[in-house]
Fold:
Amino acid sequence: MSENKEIFDGKSFQDLTKDIYKNTTDRKKQIDLLISEIHGFITTIDDVVLVAPIIKEYMDVAVKNDEHLVKLAGVIQRIIAKSSGGDEESFLLSDSEKEDLIHALQEDVEDIQRESDRLDALKEQSKSIKDN
Structure:
């Protein structure tokens, strides 16, 4: 499997690595722009208390998305390296690699569930504040 061979939906390994780089640089620009735009609206410490968690959350989600892409690139890179041997068995992941991937997926699912629960609680909290 070469770096230019399609890995999914018209994407090659080379395209994936370009996407990782582009996402990282674009996200940095977006975060800088967001902070510069919000800066003018922050006038009190209460504003900071409201805005800072939103910015932090945005940055955390951005980092997690990039981590997922990097993990995917690592798996694909191992497949490319193993497949150069030409052995059909070389496409398979080792048991420890499978366990690592399953563990990483479980952690990600748990993180997503915690984040979903936290966002639901924030929605309820903001709804009750609006109602008062």
User: Anything to note?
Assistant: The longest strand covers residues 6-8. The helical segments are 13-39, 45-83, 95-131. The longest helix spans residues 45-83.
